[in-house]
Amino acid sequence: MRGGDWRTWLPIAAVVVLVAWLTLVPLGFMLWQSVLSPQTATAAARFTLDNYRTAYGSADTARLLGNTLKFALGSAAAAFCFGALLAWINERTDTPMKSLFFALTLVPLIIPGILFTVSWIFLGSPKIGLINLVLQRVFATDAVFVDIYSIPGMIWVDSLHYSPMAFLLMTAAFRSMDPALEEQAFMSGATLPRILIRITLRLATPATAAALLILFVRALESFEVPALLGLPVGIEVYTSAIYDAIHAYPSEVGLASAYGATLLVITSLCVFLNLRIAGRGSRHATVTGKGFRPRLLRIGRWRYLTTGVFLVYVALVVALPFLVLLWSSLQRFYSVPSLAALKTLTIEPYRTVLAYPEIGLAFRNSIVLSLVSATLIMLATSALCWVVVRTRLPGRALIDNLASLPLVFPGLVLGLAIMVCYLSLPIGVYGTLWIMLIAYVTRFLPYGMRYNTAALLQVHQELEESAAMSGASLGLTFGRIVLPLLRPGLVAGWIYIIIVSIRELASSILLYSPGTEVFSVMIWELWQNGQYVELSALGVMMILVLLGFVVLAEFLGRRFGLAEV
Amino acid sequence: MLSVRSLHTDYAAAGGAVVNAVQDVSFDVPDGELFTLLGPSGCGKTTTLRSIAGLERPRAGAIELNGRVVFSSDKRIFVAPNRRNFGMVFQSYAIWPHMNVFQNAAFPLEVRGGKLSRKEIAAKVMGVLRAVALDDLADRAATKLSGGQQQRLALARALVMEPQLLLLDEPLSNLDAKLRERMRFELKRIQRELGLTTVYVTHDQTEALALSHMIAVMNQGRIVQIGSPRDIYERPSDRFVADFVGTTNFLDAVVLAGGGEGGCRVRAALGDLNVQCVDRLAANAAVVVSVRPEDVELSEQPQKATDGDNFYAGTVLAKAFLGDCLDFQVKIGDFVMLARVHPSLRTPVGDTVYVRMRAEKCIAVPDRRGGHEGI
Questions:
Q1: Which of B110, B111, B201 has the most A C-beta neighbours within 10 Å, making it the best mutation to test the interface with A?
Q2: What is the ipTM of this complex?
Q3: In chain B, is it the N or the C terminus that has fewer CB atoms within a 10 Å radius of its CB?
Q4: Residue A447 falls within a domain, yes or no?
């Protein structure tokens, strides 16, 4: 391929070094920290394996690992069931009003995990939970029907929140499947559930395995649910154990690092396994030349059932959580919905929360961080992906692996690693917005790589080669041909990174200091202070802002993005 | 004149194996001529073209255009593709979907640096669009063009830079049959009128025969034969060329008596026959005789023997009516020959038919089965 000279490759080399710095150095520091004893006023840190001994040697070890696996496996399986069922109904059946359901199903993606968890506490707590109160009134008893503070409760909330992820993964799988295979089964006399189990799910087995692994890794990383629902009743998983160790007095960073290393080993194994699966079923050949028109199964009376499934789902993930937040945001003190409480409706919490001096700051910090990190990531990864996809430079696989490495970092572990790293290095970024920016850019770098790689694979290489034959230099070709053609992917990835940045809590929670709070951290602090109504008010505003942003982005995308290449 | 000398190009296949895509390829293209690289897919023709373009970096060899060296492994010269000033039409046309027709065609002039004013660029672009009959569509979005229009735009974009060399990579393969035929003539007219030195890549032998001054037939990374279209068709140098360029009958035979270049006598399954040979052949050498179906003449009456021609009697095994001609399968002894004749011949299946093959139409080549394996 084209060689080019050092002026072309120097910027790329610089980016590679930067990526290596972002991903490898904090990891090294964390591993180093995990074999050091705590530094105190009287004793310097020294080499020790005590942290690992505490992490593995105590009676709690088995319980911690067991809780983590129970929670993550349960959450992944449940989220998959929800998502796969909805995806099949949406892609394959003639259920009415599907496009509305499709949009509503994706709403939880933009609701921050902490808000979703808090709203389900309002719904499912044994003392104040609405569900219990309603059922107790109906059956005239004071028995507790649901307890959200338990492993099943944690699984329920976490899997509901991440079911849209399963929904999207399985939607893609169903779309690349020839409907004739199902129709044939239908013609052969199979019933609907039988088709679903015998044909559809079998065909989707590779996609299913991949989706389950991704959901499992995601659940391992989950922080909000275990912290808010597990910690109060002493159910610890790895992420909440890390948080606990750091917030213990004195802070046990070494122990937290040992936990982090363990979690990292598990997630790495899963991601590696996932790559192997994906590699086997030819990775990029998802689109076959033969275009089959997606035809829908006419499911007749079953439509009422499928519509019902959608309605219940939308109630559980969108309507109930949002309404309960809205209700509590209109009260002076948190109280259960009733006719009496209806008279005390007030917008006082909104006034209170808007009067906080931190609120403007948090707003500014969240917006600046998300915009800057999304822009930096998308531009940097577009160049990186070009090198990976288009050139035959030695070491290009290394670039891909380096930039994708943060995928295996749970947010909390990444926050921990970055914290340890910049506490040790005297560059003066600790306690500033810069360290948050570093964390966000590192954490979301893989998303930029995925979006850009997908977009670049759509751009026929001859489009670039004909620019070279027309006399355009490498830089000109990149600016005039590659970037404009990547625009749909760039815009989509940019929007996605902005949304996940605004939602981000797990990394920020370890890195913020007074003055660098972001939205999600504000909510976390309000929860810790027991200011439920103010939290609800802030939550409602945040959801509305994010929704508005998604609508705007959708509009911009349609207006300025190329629909197809 | 384009001169390609001992070109070797490798590339790493998936899994790390090195593929010798092009091996020891040399040829010259005189000014203003159209030179075709013809061969089956995977024969190295496109890699050769991309090496000339500079899109692949050859391992060894030299490429020179009008005395200007653009690649030389000895002198360690490699001119980047954007500095070669070669026009190229890609197989997919590579029309940029984010630009309209005018912008696509103007791009090569724009990126050339500020030598031309906007007005000059517009004049040149409209000129070349007029030449390919796209001037009415200058403002149209590139994605709204039909296949044939995209093909003409790709050509216009290659021509607007007034290239010293035009490279065409299967430019007609994405068009439907009717349009392909029309564009074939159009392409030939434009190339001849502008007198552009052109290298053309195709796997379609009809296209190659119709367009080219010279043809190089490639197989497994090497050039097997270079010659004029008539040479390639009538005097194929081996079994592969004869088979690839058109349909042919193959007769395995042994040379009876060594002869000079020209005529010699061989023994085949259907009897002895006089043939034409390209190289000198020794006695007892194994050869394969190629006879084109249209050179197998049939008649219902025995013909008067002319000196040197080959005569046989056979039976009609099967017939196929193709409209402008009629294909006969004729059984001579145990051997079945394909003959293509005028549709006026109506001999029924099972009847006797008399076969004549002129000696100069029976081409004997040394028998290297399957072309160049193992060489």
A1: B111
A2: 0.70
A3: C
A4: yes
Chain B residues with beta carbon closer than 8 angstroms to that of A477:
82
Domain that holds residue A426: 351-565
Interface touch B94/A472, C-beta < 8 Å: no
Q: Span B2-234: which CATH code?
A: 3.40.50.300
Distance, in Å, from the CA atom of A30 to the CA atom of A24, rounded to the nearest integer, reads: 10
Residue A482 at interface with chain B, using a CB cutoff of 8 Å: no
> Given a cut of 70, is residue A3 above it in pLDDT?
no
For chain B, the structural domain boundaries read: 2-234, 248-366
CATH code for the domain defined by B248-366: 2.40.50.100
Whole-angstrom Cα distance, residue B347 to residue B364? Answer: 30
pLDDT digits (tens, 9 = 90+) for A301-351: 788 888 888 999 999 988 999 999 998 888 887 777 777 777 778 888 888
For residues A336 and A452, membership in a common domain is answered with no
Task: Confirm or reject contact between A460 and chain B (CB < 8 A).
Answer: yes
CATH number of the domain to which A310 belongs: 1.10.3720.10
Residues A334 and A429 in one domain: no
Six token digits for residue B133: 């009959």
Read off the pLDDT of residues B265-277 as tens digits, 9 standing for 90 and up: 888 888 888 888 8
> How do residues B59-92 score in pLDDT, each as one tens digit?
999 999 999 999 999 999 999 888 888 999 988 8
Nearest to A462 among B85, B90, B158 (CB): B90
**C-alpha–C-alpha distance, residues A36 and A51, integer Å:** 8
Tokens of A336: 């259960």
Q: Name the pLDDT band for A429 (thresholds 50, 70, 90).
A: confident
Encode burial over A356-393: b for 16+ CB neighbours within 10 A, e otherwise.
Answer: eeebebbbebbbebbeebbebbbbbbbbbbbbbbbeeb
Residues A184 and A213 grouped into a single domain: yes
Q: Are residues A304 and A418 in the same domain?
A: no
